[in-house]
Amino acid sequence: MYKQKCGIVFITLLLSLLFLVMAMGYILSYSPGVFPDEFAHMAYVGNVMDRGFPNYSSGTILPGGKLNYLNHPALYYLIVGGLANFLDLQGMYAMIGRYVNMLISILIIIFTCRMLYSATKSKLSTFCGGAFLLVIPMFVVSGSAVSNDQINVLGCTLVLHGLLDIIETHKDNKSITYSVITICIGGIIAALSKATGSLAIVCLLISVCLFNFSKLSEVIKKITFRQWVIIISSLAIIAIYYLNIYVVYGRFYPAPQGNPALWFAVDHPGAKRLGLTEFIVNFYQANLVTLTIPYGHAAISDNDIRITVLKTILLMLVWMTIFVIVKKLSVTNSCFNLTFSFVIAFACFIITYLFTIRQLHINTGYLGAMQARYFFGFLPVFSLVIAKIIAIIKNKAVRVILFSLIVSGLITALYPPLIKFSELRAWKSLTIVEQPLYNTGYGYLTKGRRFEQVIEADSSTLIGVELMLATFARRNYGVLTLELSDQAGKVIASNTVRLETLKDNKYAWFDFHQAALTKNQKYNLILKCDECTQDNAITWWAVKKEYESTIFLLTKFGPGVGGIYPKGNAYVDGKDVGGAFAFRLYF
């Protein structure tokens, strides 16, 4: 037994360490604001630091100064803002928000592994089920971002852990106080973090009551007065919070302005409404994509092999889930009774989510609210499904195959967060500034043309620059020159590359040999090719300038519109075209 427990501790530490490696990779690779809704979450944290509570009436988002559109409960913002004030690190609140989510993610891993081992008594099952969390890219991204997604998952995990302990693994001579406290704390955390968390908890409790009524009745009879006090106090905390919010703001989930669906409806009043079948297909595809890739407000490097491995794991999970359902329906007193209840709770959640988004689409035409992150509170359920199925498999070959598949998923999951550190220049650089987006080009870079990007020095030394170039899927020949000049036009550094060495739609490296700069001063990157013709030329990818809809122009409403790279614009042949070219600066 001691060796088993040591093994579980080792597995938990290993998975936690792997998570930390991946999370730090994302944090060091992408600036605050890149991950979904980070600026909006950061704004509420800033409100807490300034006034003690999120400003749900007139809070604004920087950059842009638009009103905040998030309507999430305050728990995460109170924790991060309060911690920043307590540590007197207000200037680092974005990083504190990210580190808090890293800690929360480790707690999720710990409680998930504890739950899996108590249900299976198997180290292999615990490892495979726990590792499933890490192969889902947005679980790691959310644990690296300023976001309330992860604390919501923690709340759901605690509730699942407590329910499993009370109904399936509880021993008659053991007090259920720990389980009651776990469920109550989890319920409070989920309810005060996201509306989807509250929905997940409601679905779980209803499903568990319906399919485990006799067992639950026995448990309820054993609840002591002290335990009832804990339960009632927890419900009172949630009720008091929402009652206070409703009295102050007139809504249970207030926000200073409407959400992106409302903006879309105002800006696109005649948008097409999809039929039910087409909508369901769209819903499935959107959730599958957001379940299998890391995403945000910038392109995140990824690999097709990783996506294929993850889809294989998800397909395996589908068959495992079907087996759980069939086994429960065909066998009385199945070991999958509670797991089945959790799966049905997930199905109820998805159906509610589907038709809520469907009604939103009918009302506004909006199709953007389809993201797998909304049901991440159920990820530990599917960790449990994987663990339980592996625990009952007797065939060693099958167990080895499943283990190998999970390990492959873990290994390939390291690619998106760590790929930027695979090159030596990333290790030499103290600061990497990136503008990774591109959606347009400005034609062939031929003799006499100039593509120019204004940058700001984040340090006193520039090691080099990477530019995202397109070769038009052909082999070109000649010399490409990149110059670094000051605002007076004096060339400070220059480097060339051979056109024939370039790859289509890939970054090209220009070494400036640690050019000396003045920090916070503006400089120009000038790309030219004196040997290029239309039949023998490349182009530099760029992102267009954003234009604000006239409906929202000069108001605090609508989406924020700011510079993609706010420190400098793109110029083509001397003309300011706005937006920015795609580049990486290594300081």
UniProtKB/TrEMBL annotation:
Keywords: Membrane, Transmembrane, Transmembrane helix. It comes from the Bacteria. The keyword Membrane applies. Coiled coil: none annotated. The keyword Transmembrane applies. The chain crosses the membrane at residues 7-28, 96-117, 124-145, 151-168, 175-192, 198-216, 228-249, 305-326, 338-355, 375-393, 400-419. This is Glycosyltransferase RgtA/B/C/D-like domain-containing protein. It comes from Buttiauxella brennerae ATCC 51605.
